[in-house]
Amino acid sequence: GCPFQCIFCSAQNVFGRTLRKRSIESVVTEMEWVVEHLHIKHFSFIDDCFTLLKDRVIAMCQEIIGRGLNITFEGFTKADTVDDDILYMLKKAGMVRISFGIESGNPEMLKRIKKGITLDEIRNAFKLSKKYQLETKGSAIIGFPYEPKETLMDTINFITSIKECDQVYLNICTPYPGTELYDMAVNGEGGIKLLSNDFSKYLRYGNPVIEVDGLSKDELIKYQKYGFRKFYFKPERIWYNLKRAGFKAGLKNAFAFLKGVSR
Predict the structure, then answer these.
(1) pTM (2 decimals)?
(2) How far are the Cα atoms of 16, 175, 184 from residue 178, in angstroms, in the given order?
């Protein structure tokens, strides 16, 4: 469950706003079983906000360390829920990768979408994560309600400027059923025009189901590709992603990426 109110997120409709917590002992015991019987040593925590409860996360890290469990893991979270203490313990317990929801690079747009976070908090989360040598990912969205070209470019420029961010997902705004955003799209609020009721077409890449504030679906695709090029076409990020995948796989990924964003 997730207690936050972001207008674009369907998590509250799927899992609710109330947090339901398993015991730390049962979580770590399950991980222990997976390592022993399935020989899997990397885990991904799919909590909507992995670091929301600081004491709980630290207790889990202490349990992993105390049992001598030799694993790696990753998770995604909200940038204002991490600090030095929690990242230190996560790294010590085996965390190797952390993802943050950036969503927008414009302060007013962050308020409109009810993200409840500031640009400074986002920057700080990435800096702290790099202090502990974690691989970092971020996700952002373009095409929100009331979003003109100028705030869309704020997002592209902001994600590009976070030098501690290793990888980014730049999504086109998609009004999932049950969200506040979907209701806005159906009612044409915020300059949104809904183009399809076929939920199978509700994809974040390459085929928008909305137009917004005078930006056509083709223009949204164009800005999405431009944002990817601007973020990834930097020497340090090219080298990083070639190195992390292995040179052969890195080149294969690079050519696929170039094909996807070239037009």
Answers:
(1) 0.91
(2) 12, 9, 11
